Amino acid sequence: MTRIKEEHVKRSLFAFIIFIIAIFIILNAVLFSFRLSGDNIKPNKEISFSSERYEPLFFNDFNGTTVEMLLPAVDSNKKGVATILRVQATKGDDKTLVEIGNLLFWADTQSSIRTARDVAENITGISLDDVDLIYSVDANASVIGGPSAGAAITIATIAAIQGKRPRADVMISGAINHDGTIGPVSEILEKANVAKANGAVLFLVPLLHSGEIVYETREYCRDFGSAEFCTQETYPRKIDVGKESGIEVREVQDIKEAMKYFFD
């Protein structure tokens, strides 16, 4: 009788363990499903050479305006990528909040935001004493930020405080100076390719940036007796960025000039 009870206890314990394992597997499957669903409703943090055009968010009501723009950028491997800039203007008391996920050169980007805010206030003549501005940049950890986003951040700030939708088929790259002029940047060709790949028909660049010098590496070999000696040599090549990328490229001197292309 005792042996029968022991067998019964063992079987019950085994069944209980199997039950616990089954519950654990089911819970993990449910959590994984929720995680996937959450990922699907979030905006893409990095858009690079996509055949599907990303439609930036624009929302305007009595509480304020939210504007999204695509920023052309490069990663640490010099590959062009587009990241999402979001600016929200709401009623407040002159606060500026910044959320920049995993961007390199975060300090440079934060400085560009401060300058962009001041330039936007000066150009529009709208006092920001009773306005809060919230800036968000979604980017992969390898994406390089810094001054090159300054012009785009300024345009997005102007759009947010004026309640205007910027054109989605125009992109810009350039630093922003305190007087509203647009400063030089690098990797123009890579950024032009990103603009073209993400549905833009016009890419705005600083003065003298519609042409660029690119460098190509070639192997050169010479014979030394019975041996061959090869070296890698770098050759400069001047290019027309617009022709090379297949997108219209225009130079702009300052933010006021750039605004003519972004706002109808």
Termini distance? 91 Å
What is the helical fraction, as a range of percent?
A: 25-40%
The secondary-structure element order is HEEEEHEEHEEEHEEEHEH
Compute the number of structural domains: 3
Describe the global form: flat
Name of the CATH first level of the largest domain: Alpha Beta
Question: How confident is the prediction overall: mean pLDDT?
Answer: 81
Number of strands: 13
Please count the helical segments.
Answer: 6
Task: Specify Rg, calculated over alpha carbons.
Answer: 27 Å
Tell me the β content.
25-35%
Descriptive report:
With 264 residues, this protein is an alpha/beta fold. It has helices at 2-41, 106-124, 150-162, 188-197, 241-245, 255-262, and strands spanning 58-61, 64-75, 80-91, 96-100, 131-138, 143-144, 170-172, 175-176, 182-183, 202-205, 211-224, 227-240, 248-251. The protein has three domains: 1-42; 58-207 and 243-262, Ribosomal Protein S5, domain 2; 211-240, no CATH class. It is built from six helices and 13 strands. Helix 2 crosses helix 3 (150-162). The longest helix has 40 residues, at 2-41. It is flat. The termini are far apart. Residues 29-51 have low confidence and may be disordered.
SSE inventory with pairings:
Blueprint: H1 2-41, E1 58-61, E2 64-75, E3 80-91, E4 96-100, H2 106-124, E5 131-138, E6 143-144, H3 150-162, E7 170-172, E8 175-176, E9 182-183, H4 188-197, E10 202-205, E11 211-224, E12 227-240, H5 241-245, E13 248-251, H6 255-262
Parallel strand pairs: 4-5, 7-10, 10-13
Antiparallel strand pairs: 1-2, 2-3, 2-6, 3-5, 8-9, 11-12
Helix pairs in contact: 2-3
